[in-house]
Design a protein that fits this description.
This protein has about 325 residues and is α+β, with helices and mostly antiparallel strands. It folds into 3 domains: about 130 residues, no CATH class; about 90 residues, no CATH class; about 45 residues. It contains 10 helices and 14 strands. It has a 4-stranded antiparallel barrel with strand order 3-4-7-6. The chain has a 3-stranded mixed sheet with strand order 1-12-11. β13 and β14 form a beta hairpin. The radius of gyration is 24 Å and the shape is globular. Bound molecules: zinc ion (ZN). The site of zinc ion has 8 residues, from loops.
């Protein structure tokens, strides 16, 4: 049930975006230029633009966003599909041959995109551990110490493994979640050694810093679901993605990535089986066909039915059926 109704419509220009090197307007010409996402043209005839309604985009869009590669190509592909985040700032393009009038231009800094993606990726990963009740996984991020001094609970993103912590503005170092001098009111609510509540408190605190709603929150009638809903107006795509994330947590939504095409989809209790692995029937049968073809190929190479079954994580009987049937 959707008891919230995100209110926001936005346009994606039909001719898309590009990266332009430039500098913040308050910085001198000696500073290093960096890429800004800008509209390809300032052609304003909007009838070709793609219009999105926040209420109609999948609730899994924020998960799609966390998969965006933090490269210029990856971000450009997402922006051409869903539009800018709404974090544009004026900048001075480096190239002198820019023909667009009305300089300085507006653009979304590359570093800002990277930071939004990586932060949301780190936090969704933490939320996945909470949803799975993976206490061992959480214990790699949340640490209690009280051997040498006051009881302190710390969070670290990195788990000691190399990761994307080098992207500017994202948390890679350890942060103190609670101690007698920092959020003592949290500390008293947690049982010593517990990792679940500290993780949830941290999640909420981080997400809160990214939540921005516009004025106009009110209750309204949802005609499709025939129930009252809470209308939440947001102002940018970025705000919508963070609002989706927050709403997914409080509504305990679960998402999964299709095994065939990689699309995120929501697992809806009652509507779709929660053990669903594919976004659609088409993707389900496609993977089935691919596996059959793979089995036949391996069979042709002289692999035994047992070997093929192991390789494809299937059973001997199924593989026998596949390799003996006509193609
Ligand atoms: Zn799929």
């Amino acid at each position: 049930m959707d008891s919230t109704w995100f209110c926001f419509t936005w346009d994606v220009p039909a001719d898309g975006y590009r990266w332009l090197p430039g500098r913040p307007i308050n910085q001198g010409p000696r500073s290093k230029p960096s890429p800004y996402l800008t509209r390809l043209t300032t052609y304003t005839d909007s009838f070709l633009n793609r219009r999105y309604d926040a209420h109609q985009v999948p609730r899994s869009l924020f998960r799609t966003f966390t998969d965006v590669p933090t490269t210029e190509e990856g971000i450009l592909a997402f922006a051409n599909e869903y539009g800018g985040l709404g974090v544009a700032e004026p900048f001075q393009p480096k190239v002198s041959d820019v023909t667009v009038v009305g300089e300085p231009l507006q653009g979304e800094p590359f570093a800002r995109w990277q930071q939004e993606i990586v932060t949301m990726r780190q936090l969704t990963a933490l939320w996945d551990l909470c949803q799975k009740k993976d206490l061992e996984g959480l214990a790699r991020h949340i640490r209690w110490t009280d051997d040498h001094g006051p009881r302190t609970v710390r969070y670290s993103h990195s788990c000691g493994e190399p990761d994307e912590g080098e992207v500017a503005g994202t948390s890679s170092d350890e942060v103190v979640l609670a101690s007698p001098s920092h959020h003592p009111e949290w500390l008293v609510q947690w049982s010593p050694g517990d990792v679940m509540l500290p993780a949830l408190f941290y999640l909420a605190d981080e997400i809160n810093q990214h939540l921005h709603f516009r004025e106009g929150m009110r209750m309204m009638w949802n005609p499709t679901q025939k129930q009252l809903a809470l209308r939440l107006p947001v102002g940018t795509l970025r705000d919508l993605l963070w609002a989706q994330f927050a709403e997914a947590i409080v509504s305990e939504r679960s998402f999964r990535k299709c095994r065939t095409c990689g699309t995120w989809f929501e697992l809806m209790p009652g509507l779709a089986r929660t053990n669903r692995l594919f976004c659609s029937e088409g993707c389900r049968s496609k993977l089935y066909r691919t596996r059959q073809e793979e089995a036949r190929r391996l069979h042709g190479e002289g692999k035994s039915v047992k070997e093929i079954a192991q390789h494809l994580e299937s059973d001997v009987r199924t593989i026998k059926g596949w390799v003996s049937s006509k193609q």
